[in-house]
Design a protein that fits this description.
Blueprint (H helix, E strand, L loop, with lengths): L10 H10 L15 E2 H6 L4 H9 L3 E7 L8 E3 L10 E5 L1 H14 L15 E4 L4 E4 L2 E5 L5 H12 L5 E3 L10 H13 L7 E6 L4 E6 L19 E2 L2
Parallel strand pairs: 9-11
Antiparallel strand pairs: 1-4, 2-3, 2-4, 5-6, 6-7, 8-10, 9-10
Helix pairs in contact: 1-4
Length: 235
């Protein structure tokens, strides 16, 4: 049973919660794969005390993320603890998602990542934490050196995630910049925890861009001639 009165949750505050968790309001969204880390929620204005009250009132749920280099999906420990740490992540409860989805439906479309309503329509690169996020969702985490990838991500972050930027990789003379850029793009698109965005070269080797991950096309022609560099698209 949800309890909003003890938190003084009026409609505007409920909509704020729905806004932050908008990417997992849909029934087909995996709540925990799209859960938000405590640091991200702090940055969005939620204090630890507020998060504790939201958990106690069953609006959101708490779990500790288990970090693993080999895991294909995010994993969590559900011990019912109210002791928060850097590993703490939060997801809407089933009932919370049901209520908030209905509330947003009454006030406007449910915001999907990248939609005009979504407050986090651009990625964020955390250089200190080696984390790439989009709409508050962890897309990729680096635990090993990947300097060419990080060079690209820093360049996008410094240019406020323009849809395309000039190739930021340094000219080292002995390295073919075309091949280096293509390989960097392929590496950026590998090992994504959640496939919300992808990178592509544009008029190689001059530009690199990012787009929302396209939906699979069921009627795609299977006998299409393969391109030498499949990550490249025309401007």
């Amino acid at each position: 049973m949800l309890n909003g009165s003890s938190l003084d949750l009026d409609e505007s505050k409920l909509l704020r919660i729905a806004e932050v968790f908008s990417h997992c309001l849909h029934d087909d969204a995996d709540r925990w794969q799209y859960s938000l880390p405590m640091k991200q929620l702090h940055e969005q204005g939620f204090s630890s005390d507020q998060l504790s009250k939201l958990v106690s009132s069953n609006w959101i749920e708490h779990a500790l993320e288990i970090v693993s280099d080999n895991a294909s999906q995010r994993r969590f420990s559900f011990d019912g603890s109210m002791s928060f740490s850097e590993s703490s992540c939060f997801a809407l409860s089933v009932e919370g998602r049901r209520i908030l989805s209905g509330l947003v439906t009454l006030t406007g479309e449910i915001a999907r990542p990248g939609s005009s309503m979504h407050p986090f329509a651009k990625p964020v690169w955390d250089d200190e934490g080696n984390r790439l996020t989009f709409a508050g969702v962890l897309v990729k985490r680096y635990r090993q050196p990947a300097e060419t990838q990080k060079c690209v991500l820093r360049a996008f972050q410094s240019q406020q995630w323009s849809k395309q930027i000039e190739n930021p990789l340094p000219d080292e003379g002995f390295v073919d910049r075309v091949d280096q850029l293509y390989e960097t793009v392929r590496s950026l698109n590998r090992c994504r925890i959640v496939k919300l965005i992808r990178f592509e070269t544009i008029e190689s080797p001059h530009f690199i861009g990012w787009i929302l991950e396209p939906q699979e096309q069921p009627n795609k022609v299977q006998n299409e001639k393969p391109k030498k560099h499949p990550e490249s698209t025309p401007r």
